[in-house]
Amino acid sequence: MAKHEKAVQQELVLFLLSLPIAFLIAPSWLAFLLMTGSILFLILVEVLNTGIEATCDAVSRDFHKEIQIAKDCGSLAVLIASIFAATVWGYILFTTYLI
């Protein structure tokens, strides 16, 4: 799947880059787990979104309001997971290095 889905590829690269960065800057193992876990959660949601989109495309390539709603909900879930990951990273960086 990562071979064909650009978003999943990008998030896997993000995860691989985040591992050493989180290891170096996390003040504790808990912070490290939260930082890397938030990226893994983002990847999980993206994979589920890809599955939703593939299923919808298999049902029909024509426009259907219900299919559009399903795809939009999947995209919204990815956005929320992205905001969550950014919030976790931002909070840990802010409380560790700026306070």
Can you walk me through this structure?
By secondary structure, the protein is mostly helical. It has a domain of 66 residues: Helix Hairpins (Orthogonal Bundle). The protein is 85% helix and 0% strand. α1 runs antiparallel to α2 and α2 packs antiparallel against α3. The longest helix has 33 residues. The N and C termini lie far apart (42 Å). 14% of the residues are buried. It is found in: Cell inner membrane. It is a multi-pass membrane protein. Its EC number is 2.7.1.107. This is Diacylglycerol kinase.
List the helices and strands and how they pair.
Layout: H1 6-25, H2 29-59, H3 65-97
Helix pairs in contact: 1-2, 2-3
Summarize the structure.
By secondary structure, the protein is an all-alpha fold. It has helices at residues 6-25, 29-59, 65-97.
